[in-house]
Amino acid sequence: MKERTALVTGASRGIGKAIAARLERGGAKVLTPCRQELDLLSNVSIDAYLSGLPESVDILVNDAGINRLGSITEASDRDVEETLQINLVAPLRLVRGLAPGMMERRYGRIVNISSIWSMVSKPRRITYAASKSGLNGLTRTIAVELAPYNILANAVAPGYVLTEMTRQNNTEADLEAIRRTIPAQRLAHPEEIAEVVAFLCSKANSYLTGQTLLIDGGFTCQ
């Protein structure tokens, strides 16, 4: 990834932070805008950030996301709108803004961070599951459209990962119960997800595109 510039959203913590660090170790220059620079809730902010980029971006990792728990009867309009905006609309706008430059240079790597809840589900994940399922569809479509330009697009769907969001949504008792449901008998570490993303973003990946890769310790195989 030397001489490549990567843009990673959601890089202040968790999986995004691990991805940014791994891409830097791989030789990429990594842009990790804070919310003041790039507010994914605001399409105006997204467009302003894209128009103000001082350099071309070769690698895009859409990691930022929110997961507001609520059933179909609990989810408010605000929950629905903001979850879809951050998890789906913002990645789409970033891809749309950066793809023309990648097409012109005939090189690009795009990785969207999805979730196992786009493949299977559980109660109170209605908005999150919908947004991540949409992200998988976005990934497949841009992969087909951009492949002729040597731009590869994939999604990574982590299972349970030891992040702040996971601890926020689960008690210690919950986490212990979750561990027992995973064939690998443990949750993933953010660095393990970052290794897969790094491969997808590198020139070592020359043909894999349009896929959603589940990294879940065998959870969805049961």
Class computed from helices, strands and strand pairing: alpha/beta
CATH homologous group name = NAD(P)-binding Rossmann-like Domain
CATH fold label: Rossmann fold
Coarse morphology: globular
* Oligomeric description of these chains: single chain
The appropriate CATH architecture is: 3-Layer(aba) Sandwich
Radius of gyration: 17 Å
How many alpha or pi helices?
Answer: 7
Describe the structure.
This protein is an alpha/beta fold and 222 residues long. The N and C termini lie far apart (36 Å). A 6-stranded parallel β-sheet has the order 2-1-3-4-5-6, sandwiched between helices. The mean pLDDT is 97. Strand 3, helix 3 and strand 4 (108-113) form a beta-alpha-beta unit. Helix 1 packs across helix 7 (190-201), helix 2 packs parallel to helix 3 (77-105) and helix 3 runs parallel beside helix 4 (126-146). The chain is built from 7 helices and 6 strands. The protein has helices at 14-25, 43-51, 77-105, 126-146, 164-169, 172-181, 190-201; strands at 5-8, 29-31, 59-62, 108-113, 151-158, 212-215. It has one domain (5-161, 190-215): 3-Layer(aba) Sandwich (Rossmann fold), CATH 3.40.50.720. The chain is 45% helix and 13% strand.
SSE inventory with pairings:
Layout: E1 5-8, H1 14-25, E2 29-31, H2 43-51, E3 59-62, H3 77-105, E4 108-113, H4 126-146, E5 151-158, H5 164-169, H6 172-181, H7 190-201, E6 212-215
Parallel strand pairs: 1-2, 1-3, 3-4, 4-5, 5-6
